[in-house]
Amino acid sequence: MDLKLIIAGVSIGLAMAAPLGPVNLTVIRTALNHDLKVAFLAGLGAVLADVLIAGIAAYGIHSVEHLILDYAKLLQTAGGILLIILGIRTARAHFAASDLMPGPHSARFGLTFSLSVTNPGLALGYLAIFSSMSGMLALSASPFRPAIVIIGIAMGGALWWLFLSFFFVRLKTRLSTSALDRINRWSGILVAAFGFLLLLKAFD
Question: How far is it, in rounded angstroms, from Cα 72 to Cα 164?
């Protein structure tokens, strides 16, 4: 297995996962309200979406670009509505001691997957990265090269979500209930704001 391709994939995975956005806010809130396992599992939903989108982009970078652009408005609309609903629910939620109990893990996994897979910026981002790094990645040189890069992307994403989950799970022991309520409120406002921006782009 090409170590350089793995390292490149890990770097891409970290770069795509790290910027603050709805998925990061969702995982942070999950880490504050639950335990490391639940938060990390929520992050893995985004990793699955990354693997799916990156795989499509890596194996068909030229053929899928127009398809993604054609359906960008529909994806932006769906993602924007989902984010607004999630943001309002998050902002109105009150933190209670019972929130620290493990909840339905699959729901959070599905939520982060949905948030990621309906974001056309994710697909366009991978297309842009693969295009700009085409000389180094040489994805078309072998059918195995895209798979190796995608494995690296999954590793990079998983490392980021593990770090983020661990950091905020440790941090929550130093926060009061009122502080957690404020984090919920502002997280919800930011998530809803991302949703409104997506809708504005969709109808621009």
Answer: 29
pTM of the model: 0.74
d(CA 62, CA 16) in angstroms, rounded, equals 20
The neighbour count for residue 142, using CB atoms within 10 Å, is 11
> Domain of 151?
3-202
Cα gap 45→190, rounded to integer Å? 20
Q: What are phi and psi of 34, to 5 degrees?
A: -135, -155
Strand, helix or coil at 2? coil
Tens of pLDDT, residue by residue over 122-171, are 887 887 788 767 778 888 788 888 899 999 999 999 999 999 999 988 88
Which of 14, 29, 46 shows the shortest CA–CA distance to 169? 29
Residue stretches of the chain with pLDDT short of 50? 97-102
Number of domains in the chain: 1
